[in-house]
Design brief:
The chain is mainly alpha-helical. The chain has 15 helices and no strands.
């Protein structure tokens, strides 16, 4: 239920809570969460990049306006969501009003509201919305004070990844599973396959960054950069990781220097997830008033592909 900006370690506000509220509504109405994964980190990455199956595909009986509201609540960018809970409440009330006089919709919503028989659901939707808002606020407050901590702070349960006949097949398995355990298996099973191990370490570095294990990420990226100093592609991707490390440590000037002196001329060598990482790094550096960031440089690293 964590918002993309919270996963990325960016500033959060009430709109982050609205994202989580939208995910909750999606789960309640669809019967399944919008994203599933083998670990909390895998799910978090999907919240960053993936688009959920349209709610109306799960529930064609729901009012289109409600489905639209739920998906806007789950927009990746906070600016694309409703800006406060009052807006959400107003929209829910309007949806209720629009259902008045629609007999088929009234029957449909009555079945959702109660298994005991028909009820005037549209007329009660405003009351339901107000109650839902109160429950949401109270639950959020209780959750904040009693929270056990971010799921990303807890190490995932160890998972055994089967050994494949070749290092290439092991890498393919890691791409398919998309877990840290799968990439670690490449390193463990085929330590002699230098380039495949380097690819695995780059991905493990990304997982370490997502978990804010900055020192571990630096070690992984620096190992690749040092070992493959003469491999332009691997070196460029490792430098992208090191630029992110410097930025997360608050060394925005050094981070931006790597971006502008090294990565700009080698941006075509970056894989899509590293391009995305560089964009996030540039945005973080821009928030530091003492760091000069060249206008338009973020656009140079834009990719149509997503991680």
């Amino acid at each position: 239920y964590m918002s993309p900006e919270q996963v990325n370690g960016k500033p959060v506000d009430a709109r982050s809570d609205l994202y989580s509220f939208g995910v909750t509504l999606y789960h309640l109405l669809a019967g399944d969460p919008p994203f599933r994964g083998e670990t909390a980190l895998a799910i978090a990455v999907k919240h960053l990049n993936d688009t959920p199956v349209p709610l109306e595909e799960h529930r064609p009986d729901l009012p289109p306006a409600l489905c639209d509201l739920v998906h806007r609540l789950m927009a990746k960018a906070p600016a694309d969501r409703p800006q406060n809970a009052g807006e959400v409440l107003d929209e829910l009330r309007e949806i209720g009003k629009s259902l008045n006089g629609d007999e088929s919709a009234t029957r449909s919503w009555s079945r959702i509201a109660s298994r005991k028989g028909p009820s005037n659901w549209p007329a009660r939707l405003g009351t339901f919305a107000a109650a839902a808002a109160v429950v949401f606020v109270v639950s959020a407050a209780l959750g904040w004070w009693t929270r056990p901590g971010s799921p990303l702070d807890a190490p995932p349960a160890p998972q055994r990844v089967a050994r494949q006949p070749t290092s290439g097949e092991q890498v393919f398995t890691a791409w398919r599973l998309g877990t840290a355990e799968a990439w670690q298996a490449v390193v463990d099973y085929f330590p002699e396959a230098d380039r495949d191990v380097a690819t695995a370490k780059l991905h493990l570095g990304l997982f370490a960054l997502a978990e804010r294990r900055v020192d571990d990420a630096e070690q992984l990226f620096d190992e690749v950069r040092t070992r493959f100093e003469n491999d332009a592609e691997l070196r460029a991707n490792a430098l992208a990781g090191l630029a992110a490390v410097e930025s997360l440590r608050g060394d925005h000037g050094d981070s931006q220097k790597i971006v502008e002196s090294e990565l700009r001329r080698n941006r075509e060598l970056l894989v899509p997830e590293m391009q995305q990482l560089v964009q996030e790094t540039i945005r973080r550096n821009q928030n530091d008033p003492s760091t000069k960031v060249e206008d338009g440089i973020e656009e140079l690293f834009r990719s149509d592909e997503s991680y």
